[in-house]
Amino acid sequence: MRRRHVIVGAIAALGLPLVARAETGLPVIGFLHSGAPEENTQRLAEYFKGLSETGFSDGRNVKVEYRWARGHNDKLPALARELVEAKVDVIATPASTPAAVAAKKATATIPIVFASGADAVALGLVASLSHPGGNVTGVTSLNTEIASKRLGLFRELVPNAARYYALVNPTSPLTAPFAKDLQAGAKTLGIEVELLRASTDAEIAAAIESAARPPGSVLIFASDSFFYIRREAIAKLAAARAVPTVFDVPEYVEAGGLMSYGSDFSDVMQIAGRYTGRILKGEKPADLPVTQSEKFKLALNLKTAKALNLTAPPILLAQADEVIE
């Protein structure tokens, strides 16, 4: 059953002029994200839970201004500049690596808190995980290890897969590190993975159609807000073409996808919220090591498995954190 969370006021004031600290008397968090608010209520709830642990609450002693790109990464640079020009106290980009990259390019002085599954050093966000050395810090996950584990679990569920495809968004900064980690994980398992690319709805449909042609093919989706906000449409397309799919987070599985394995975003978002609060209290990003989320979630959709004539092994069911029947 799909979990529902309500955040009072969390997605309000969209598109309105930013209000600086001088006008409100409160510190201002600029929340920048490549996705859409209605698709991220659960994650926002976790972020604010972490923020509240440091004593901050939106509207009481801090103000949050939101900027959402709604799946259009090309809008992020302008949205980041808006926040910089408004002189917000900190920019938060949790669960949106493209937003973190855009914010980093927009300012070298305003603190930035990210939460990403990509290599923050390779992306140029920080000098090193232990000593960020600039205005950016946050939380990351074990990239290559996750890719290998995800593929291994997927192979347990679909043991007779003949060909492996992976769908990436070529406009996302996540694509290169995802492909690198995926291929490294595939190599350890003796699997070959062919990359497909999509940055429009039509291209997603074409990629799924392409993956469906060779008998016994399966499809791995990259972590990306562009795909995330289209997860219900993706699940329907994959079901119509009988393509087994694997993703990074359970929301895809709740929408009808077959399986997901990745970082527990409840934990990731809470850490990002706590880091934001610590910075508002005066700590500097350069002094806050990038922390690593070590909590992971496995989700399975048995309805989808049945439709694909797949049976989840008992050992896989025992490992699952969420099972949809």
Please render the helix and strand layout as text:
Blueprint: H1 21-24, E1 28-33, H2 41-52, E2 63-68, H3 76-85, E3 90-94, H4 97-106, E4 112-116, E5 136-140, H5 143-157, E6 163-168, H6 175-189, E7 193-197, H7 201-212, E8 217-221, H8 225-228, H9 231-240, E9 245-247, H10 250-254, E10 259-263, H11 265-280, E11 291-292, E12 296-301, H12 302-307, H13 314-319, E13 322-324
Parallel strand pairs: 1-2, 1-3, 3-4, 4-5, 5-11, 6-7, 6-8, 8-9, 9-10, 12-13
Antiparallel strand pairs: 10-12
Helix pairs in contact: 2-11, 3-4, 5-6
Tell me what the structure shows.
The chain is of the alpha/beta class. It folds into 2 domains: 21-141 and 264-295, Response regulator (Rossmann fold); 143-263 and 297-324, Response regulator (Rossmann fold, 3-Layer(aba) Sandwich). Helices cover 38% and strands 19% of the residues. It contains 13 helices and 13 strands. It has helices spanning 21-24, 41-52, 76-85, 97-106, 143-157, 175-189, 201-212, 225-228, 231-240, 250-254, 265-280, 302-307, 314-319, and strands spanning 28-33, 63-68, 90-94, 112-116, 136-140, 163-168, 193-197, 217-221, 245-247, 259-263, 291-292, 296-301, 322-324. The strands form 2 sheets. A 7-stranded mixed sheet has the order 7-6-8-9-10-12-13. A 6-stranded parallel sheet has the order 2-1-3-4-5-11, with helices on both faces. The radius of gyration is 20 Å and the shape is elongated. Residues 1-19 have low confidence and may be disordered.
